[in-house]
Design goal:
The protein is mainly β. Helices cover about 0% and strands about 50% of the residues. The strands form six sheets. Strands 1, 15, 16, 17, 19, 22, 24 and 25 form an eight-stranded antiparallel β-sheet that branches. A seven-stranded antiparallel β-sheet has the order 2-3-4-12-7-10-14, with no helix packed on it. A four-stranded antiparallel β-sheet has the order 18-23-20-21, with no helix packed on it.
Amino acid sequence: MHVVRPEQIPWINRMNVDGWPCQTRTFYENPEIDLRIRLIDYPPGSIEPRHVHPGMHAAVVLENKAIVDGLTLGPMDVIVGPSNEPHGPIDYPDGCRLLSAFQGSNFHSEVQRLSTEKSYRLVQHADIPWMPAASAGETKTLVDHGLGRLVVEVLRFPAGSRVETDFVAAFVLDGEASAGGEAIGTWDLIHADARDARTPLACKSSVTLLAFSMRDHNGGSSSTC
């Protein structure tokens, strides 16, 4: 397993399609499965205009709120933006930090009208029940369709759990754990690609993960390409 810590990654300044500045940190990028995971920071008062992009994303709110289509999204809520489907505008009145799992080109173009077939969606995690996890703890699936093979889940484990890591990458929302003797804490990201050895996750405290997996070609969730 590989551990990526936010303080190891420099902020990169970028501009949105309407000229609003934001900053990004790229935690993970794998061209073999065309997956890029970035932390995005919007300053207070930012508004993303209605836009479209060739790629597709699951943008998970981490801090503060995003207002879109009359809904207020808070932490662990998701904006699902499919390929070539216009969506927005998105208002960040207090600023916002999101974790974006993106596949394909993220070149944004501003558009004025939404498609007549609105296939993008907003996921409010409070509407999704917790279910028993396969090994220990609980899980809730935030995204399991609409973004190709990408599956996004929240995993929650009690202190003392020893968890098999079958995901591609996971962002630590809260808690303390270790993998292969290396300490892992809040807002660290762990990942393992298809050729990497797997290490169980030992939970020192209760741990909540935002996990990203790629569905295999038979429909099941898989960490491989």
